[in-house]
Predict the 3D structure of the following.
Amino acid sequence: MNVNLTPQLEEMVREKVASGRYNNASEVVREVLLAIRNVPVNETSAVLFKLAKRYDGTDRYLLEAINIAAADRTQELYDQLVADRGFTLAQLSLLQLLNPTAAVERVRVELEKKDIDEATFAPLLACANAMSDPEAGKLLLEFVTKAEVAPALRQRALDTTAAHLNDEWNELTDDQELVAALQAALADGSLQESALRVVEAHHLQLVDEDVMHLAADANAPSAVRVATIRTTIQLAKSDAKVELLRKLLADRKSSVREAALTALVVDLQDLQTAQKAVSYT
């Protein structure tokens, strides 16, 4: 393993390798890390540092073993790794384990860079997804507003944030960052359907006006406009909403007209529209 172990740990490794019960070096490394708990700190700090330095983000069991071995010396291990060469993107989960605040800041810095591709974005999204701090969600929402970023990456950022709105990031449902992100998504044809799903699932009244504006947009695809009508009727009823839907009864797209009629008569129980519909039959 090219790591200088204490005599006690070297003996343990020899015994485990000789047993034939291990398929690869990573399994032995995990065992060494777990054994470190029972060895004096002054004898194992260097070993823990060197083994943690090997972490490449692919072995979650190794990450857990590092966590157990570090115990109450996570700050010391963090300082050692920073002083050595810092953390690569592949090691973001290790950074999150040792110093959550530093991990949030690293994600912020990386997401603010231009020309982010899939290889860069994937570990950043995985790290943010594992954070309980709502600040991570705010970073993803800000990322959604960046029109120059590939739509597929922005959609994944939005979907990941939405998945946490019912738990750790619940406070974001009333946050302006969420409003801005949804407004940006609703204005982007490639993200509109995802944005509507989020609005409807979480009953986000703050963007109802933007949803109605999209429903009235004659240049938007009919399917999207129908979806916006279905979404907006799940939110609070208003005179402006009823008036808009009445105007859509004369829309040139039959699917939009039908969706507006159903929304008015069935969902909003608009008596005026119902009476007119009956008179036409």
